[in-house]
Specification:
5 helices; 125 residues; single chain
Length: 125
């Protein structure tokens, strides 16, 4: 675990070499696709799409909105991390920030998963 933090800090505090925004975006996207909290989040967001009363175009619209806003958000996030003060701040406090954000996202994901389960039970009862 300590080697990972050293590697991250060495990258962030490196000699000014900033990877292209597209590489940061790609790495963030792959990381989040493999993240169980992100999976819970997207499963919970899909709950309204499973309701019987919606037109299929509604599901397509919601899916498009999720993908479009997520893509724009990740592009902006990748650009923010190219700014040196943000990179150095994150390098110093990465473990603390990651822990706090993990707890917040896990709580949100489990809350959404609980709501999804309740709605499913109510709809099929």
């Amino acid at each position: 675990m300590e080697n990972m933090a050293e590697g991250r800090n060495a990258f962030l505090a490196g000699c000014g070499d900033i990877p292209p925004a597209s590489c940061i975006y790609r790495d963030a996207l792959v990381t989040n696709l493999m993240n169980p909290k992100a999976t819970f989040f997207f499963v919970a967001l899909s709950a309204p799409l499973l309701e019987k009363n919606h037109d299929p175009s509604y599901a397509l619209l919601i899916g498009f909105l999720i993908v479009a806003t997520g893509t724009v958000g990740w592009i902006l996030w990748a650009l923010v991390f190219r700014w040196q003060p943000i990179r150095s701040f994150y390098g110093r406090y990465a473990v603390i920030l990651d822990g706090i954000l993990s707890l917040v996202l896990a709580g949100f994901g489990f809350s959404m998963l609980y709501s999804f389960g309740r709605m499913t039970v109510e709809n099929f009862s």
